[in-house]
């Protein structure tokens, strides 16, 4: 998918007119892949509705606990399009592989998280960390330490359980 407004989203200055223009420009290029912009703040109702109406597939961000994700998904399913959660892993907020992966699989929602291995991007550190901070007791996105060992073996087992059958069932 193409996330057309990542920069604009970061600046929190997206407007409906610009969204329409961006999608029109992208559609004029006759893309082979679906177009989307992830919704991230359900309180911005007019922008969220415009984005969802323009998108070929539904993509969303939700770093909340399982009940927050379930509530958002309940609304997004009304659009009757494929759904992908493009940002969701934040242990400090109750966003966990153990709770979220079973739900995503049950609901047939694609998902991915930012971190894999603790490295240059420092996605093991929370957003509010300052340069030079040491690793906190609770790591953020990453699954593996730099040496490849899991932060938590149980998470790796959950990931394998909920992704292995998907891969094995495809041809």
Structure, explained:
The chain is mainly α and 171 residues long. Helix content is 39%, strand content 9%. It is built from six helices and five strands; from the N terminus they run βααβαβαβαβα. Strands 3-4-5 form a three-stranded parallel sheet, covered by helices on one side. The protein starts with a strand and ends with a helix. The relative contact order is 0.10. The mean pLDDT is 85.
Keyword list:
171 residues; mainly alpha; three-stranded parallel β-sheet; 6 helices; 5 strands; 9% strand
Largest sheet: 3 strands, parallel
Distance between the termini: 22 Å
Averaging pLDDT over every residue, what do you get?
85
Q: Assess the beta-strand content as a share of residues.
A: 5-15%
- Tell me how many strands there are: 5
The assigned structural class equals: mainly alpha
Spatial order of the strands in the main sheet?
A: 3-4-5
| Cα-atom radius of gyration | 17 Å
Q: Using the alpha-carbon principal axes, give the shape.
A: globular
SSE succession = EHHEHEHEHEH
Sequence stretches where pLDDT stays below 50 over 5 or more residues: none
Number of helices: 6
What is the helical fraction, as a range of percent? 25-40%
